[in-house]
Amino acid sequence: MNHETKEILYLKAEEDALPFFQALANKNRLEILRILRQKDASIKELGELLGISSAVITKHIQALEEAGIVRSSTRPGKRGLKKLCTLALNEAQVIFNNNYGDSARSFMEVELPISAYDQCEITAPCGMAGEDRIFGSIDDPRYFTAANRYAVNLLWFTSGWVRYPIPLLDVDLHRVEEIEISMELCSEHPGFNNHWKSDIAFELAGLPLGNWTCPGDFGDRKGRHTPGWWTLGTEYGLLKTLVVNREGTFLDGTQIGAVTAEDVLNTLQDTAQDTLPFRILAPASAVHPGGLNLFGRHFGDYDQNIRVLFYYRMNPADETVRDDEGAEAGSFLAA
Q1: Pairwise CA distance, residues 294 & 325, whole Å
Q2: CA dihedral 188, 194, 199, 205 (to 10 degrees)
Q3: Can you tell me whether residue 105 is helix, strand or coil?
Q4: Which of 194, 179, 183, 320 is closest to 261 using CA atoms?
């Protein structure tokens, strides 16, 4: 995947976004995107895979380029130059609220590489990998504390935990009302086992948020971003999103615990920390002690590290938002 890939494109449901919507209203173009999610491809390769002439593929690519969905570049080939196509973005969000610019919740985003943990306790079998090679030696937990692990993009262990210090220096803690953390995870089994369950737990500021039972260690197909050299079984995980707000703790919209954002913030005030400790655990004593794989960029199905969003309350002057007719608006869109 091209490293310049844009993560998210925000679109309003207005006329100037028509090229984007029209580019997707074609079965062959959707098939092209399906292929490009797996790998970059030339015009000729796309034509051969879809059974379509290069001239027709070129027109489809032009439409996708004009919409900002695909980019292409000229590269040396066996017989002269070839046009190599790649995805230009990973995600698009459509905004239907005309007052989006006024009513969107503000937030601070922090991204943590999966190698950025400050403490760990690891039990073998275990290991780590970078974008182009295995890091250190497999099944040797000592490498998890190596100072040069900054390039690690995948880590796995049978039981144990890793703790991430989420930096807070740029976060306005007095206005935080919701904390969102997303990451790609799966169980850990030698090779892979799509039905190997694992109980994975989460903690924030030392408070237990809840548990999730992962259904398997997935290797039945190639991960969308997993490099070609990787042949050790596990290929992709599931993107899980934790949300801690005034109501409690939720995982993908389902409540898994009673810890609230206020509980977390109160704990931080008591300890006067400038980081928020976040732990991911695969306890050996769990009902399903199935370990875990944690994916970063360039591995798995989602080209992201651990993403943390601190959503803010509206400023007092902005708390009353009115629609076009002057009536109070009671809901807000997340940016």
Answers
A1: 48
A2: 70
A3: strand
A4: 179
Return the structure tokens found at 45.
Answer: 């390769």
Q: Looking at the predicted structure, is the pLDDT value of residue 201 above 90?
A: yes
Could you give phi then psi for residue 280, rounded to 5 degrees? Answer: -115, 125
The sign of the CA dihedral 60, 61, 64, 65 is negative
Mapping DSSP to helix (H, G, I), strand (E, B) and coil, where does residue 75 land? strand
- Amino acid of residue 67: A
Q: How many CB atoms lie under 10 A from the CB of residue 224?
A: 19
The whole-angstrom distance between residue 313's C-alpha and the CA centroid of its chain comes to: 24
DSSP-assigned letter for residue 288: S
| pLDDT tens readout for residues 283-328 | 999 999 999 999 999 999 999 999 999 999 876 555 444 344 343 3
Pair type for strands 119-130 and 134-135:
antiparallel
Burial of 89 (0-12, 13-18, 19+ CB in 10 A): middle
Provide the token pair at 215. Answer: 């259904």
What integer pLDDT is reported at residue 331 of this predicted model?
Answer: 29
Phi, psi dihedral angles at 316 (to 5 degrees): -50, -35
Work out the number of other CB atoms within 10 angstroms of the CB of residue 323.
Answer: 14
Q: Cβ neighbours of residue 153 under 8 Å, at least 6 residues apart?
A: 114, 115, 129, 130, 131, 295, 296, 297, 298, 299
- Which pTM was predicted? 0.67
| Pair of tokens at residue 260 | 């609230």
Q: Judge whether 274 and 167 are in contact, CB under 8 Å.
A: yes
Please provide the DSSP assignment of 294-326 as one string: EE-TTSSSS---EEEEEEEPPPGGGS--B-TTS
Separation CA 199–CA 17 (nearest Å) = 43
Structure tokens at 256: 């898994």
- For 158, counting Cβ atoms within 10 Å of its Cβ (0-12 exposed, 13-18 middle, 19+ buried), the class is buried
Alpha helices in the chain (DSSP H): 18-24, 27-38, 43-50, 54-66, 100-103, 261-271
